[in-house]
Amino acid sequence: MNKILIVDDDPNIREVVALFLRQEGFTLCEAVDGADAFEKLATFKAELAIVDVMMPRIDGWQLCEQLRRDWDIPVLMLTAKGETSQKVKGF
Q1: Quick one: average pLDDT of 35-58?
Q2: CB contact burial 44-61 (16+ within 10 A = b; e otherwise)
Q3: Which end of the chain is more exposed for a tag (fewer CB within 10 A), N or C?
Q4: Domain map of the chain by residue range?
Q5: Among 9, 53, 47, 6, which residue's Cα sits nearest to residue 30?
Q6: What pLDDT, on the 0 to 100 scale, is given for residue 83?
Q7: What's the pLDDT band for 57 if we cut at 50, 70, 90?
């Protein structure tokens, strides 16, 4: 697993996540929201998606649902929400 798609509307979060992953030798692609992620996936064959939950246009939940349905890409959800219901929803 070498190609990772980072999807977050906060540029600071994307930058920090990307910094650590690049240092480990991963190839990265960044998207600002779910809609942008789908555009990037047309040319970037991600092997993992790191996805923020709260984003404009297509949020992380919608993106995760579509990735599970249409692509074979594992998804790691990023969220500040800690409620059990949110954890179950992500599972």
Answers
A1: 93
A2: bebebbbbbbebeebbbb
A3: C
A4: 3-90
A5: 6
A6: 56
A7: confident
